[in-house]
Amino acid sequence: MSELRMNALNALGGVQLDEKKVAKIHQGFTPLFESKSKISDIFAKNVFNLITMKDYLSEGTYNKMVEVIKHDVKIDHTTAESVAKGLKKWAMDNGATHYTHWFQPLTGTTAEKHDAFFKPSLDITVQGMEHLSASELIQREPDASSFPNGGLRNTSAARGYTIWDPSSPAFILETENGKTLYIPSVYISYTGESLDNKTPLLKSNELHNVAATAVCHLFDSSVNNVITTLGWEQEYFLIDENFYHARPDLVMTGRTLFGNKPPKGQQLEDHYFGTIPERVQKYMIDFENECLKLGVPVLTRHNEVAPGQYECAPMFEELNVAVDHNLLLMDIMTRKAKKHGFKVLFHEKPFAGVNGSGKHNNWSMATDKGKNLLSPGKNPGSNLSFLTFFINVVKAIDENADVLRASIASAGNDHRLGANEAPPAIISVFTGSFLEKVLNDFKNSGLSTLEAVKSILDLNIPKIPEISVDNTDRNRTSPFPFTGNKFEFRAVGSAANCAQSMTVLNTLVADQLIKFKKSVDDLINLGVEKEKAIIEILQKYLNESDRIIFNGDGYSKEWEKEAKNRGLANLKTTPEALKALISEKAIKLFTSNAIFNEHEVEARYEIELENYIKKLDIECVIMEELVRTHILPAANQHISLQINNLRGYKEIGLNKAADKEKSDIENLFNIIEELKQLNSQMIEVRTKILNKKELVQQAKGFSDEITVYFEKIRTHVDELEKLVDDNFWRLPKYREMLFLR
Questions:
Q1: Which end of the chain, N or C, is surrounded by fewer C-beta atoms within 10 Å?
Q2: What is the mean pLDDT of residues 530-541?
Q3: Which domains does the chain have, with CATH numbers?
């Protein structure tokens, strides 16, 4: 047996870590439930929010910051100078020695460069001191050519800027190496183009605010602004860290390129919502404690469907902050996993044959008066405000389904979408049966008195209370279902930055609301009464967008056929889906609303294509290497064992046994020879693809040709795993990684 695989199994003692290792892993770990603290005692203790600012800023500066954060007032230099002094004092009072602008380059992750507060003096008679100026708080300068930029920057034009985002609070991150002040920031080029995911998100937030507020004024002139809200649900896998390091494919790609399906997977459905393993729960509590101190309201935890799969989720927050908090959570989960001897996997499909992982984005909008604009109320049939926003969202999705699909396209998500475990690649909207009736009545007759009356369910069991039943069931097969007072974008991948899909969703909804408001105003100017004008336009929208509403089984083959008849796209691969980003419609959508200029749109398209190509190329290279250096040597060892057995059978005259052994050897030999040929052919095809000049051609080549080899080679390797002696097999197996805790 491979030394790495053997060591990984020994570390687990066949079932779990030995007591000494457990003690070492959890040394110094004090879970919240063992202390006398409540969550409210530690929540946001490491965050420089408005509550903390009261103690570190003057009254005048504090009031200015309230205006900046709550009312989108641009911060002035004098205020920034006062904030910098207060922020530095708070950070140092809490043990921080360094600060960093924390930003989101187009790598899909975050980036940071740490600077010390301490500034030495040029005068040797004067001791240096800690300092943070307004200019240092507001602006820093990382290299803009070394991150993905799609041609917006080149090596000789490297200047770029990170700029403080006051709307997302600064925080102190504690690690074993010390404490650092993190300042959320946007990232732009020297020429002003956005090089990150936060800049367009903030633009889309403001665009949506203006558009939605204008529509709100049709019903309530006192509304000052509208915010978008997000509550994400993060799915992930945990495996023992030793197994991870014994699987080069996991290390290089985040997923297993091989792995025979174990006798038990998720078919018994016993892992979902089951008892959380003790070691896993300790890990969960540890990263949750850190998140709570950073103001991330992660309050839900449970086992997910697949073995080794789990989920955590927070309360919803303002969208920009929620995105920052999700990225922060993923970073903390990764750090804490190592401490507990785990590796956390965010890849959308790390293991074949069991469910992959998503990141459901629960999106809604609320006014500054606290009203959720997507809450139907007791009488949705007569709630014209709700119907207005709901129908406009449906219309926006129908008009831009392909652009929304492009926002979630990735090599990892291609394994998940439409695989009978996640929403299909066909974008549709689920309304539920009750709202479907409301919308049909509205389309045909206008406002109605149809009430959302919840029925009562009584099990007639003593001591078991009766419950109220929702008006409609949930649909887990829909990519974009309405779930009572919000839309849940279920198709987002677990490794994704929420900002990408939320920027697109904000933009297309805002664009639709702008068109709607203009249409209403035009009718009113023609003398049509306001309510009548609103109803007339909404009825028109419903008739035009009927095709996007689907309340059936999104996994069924029948839906694929029906969707095609409806004219809905089924974009199953990333290269197919990304084309929508550079369509005339998409470019107009983003440029007319000042989210991106045309160059920025094209740059993002190029970056996403390059990312897809590079990821599949890495998978191709590591697959070829593993076959050559791990799989074939193990198979050859097994053949040698069989040949010795064959000789032994012949020597003692066991002819039937010898014939069977010979047949097994021939079968194994044939698999090995076919595997060698496929491996060589795949590399030859890879070379031809990479010699193509156009990124589009390369991406299509990997999608259409290389992935075919992935499947064929995997089939042969997984067959070998079933045949080769367990002592010779070098890669940890699925039954070991997923079931040994």
A1: N
A2: 98
A3: 1-29 (no CATH), 31-196 (3.10.20.70), 206-596 (3.30.590.10), 611-739 (1.20.120.1560)
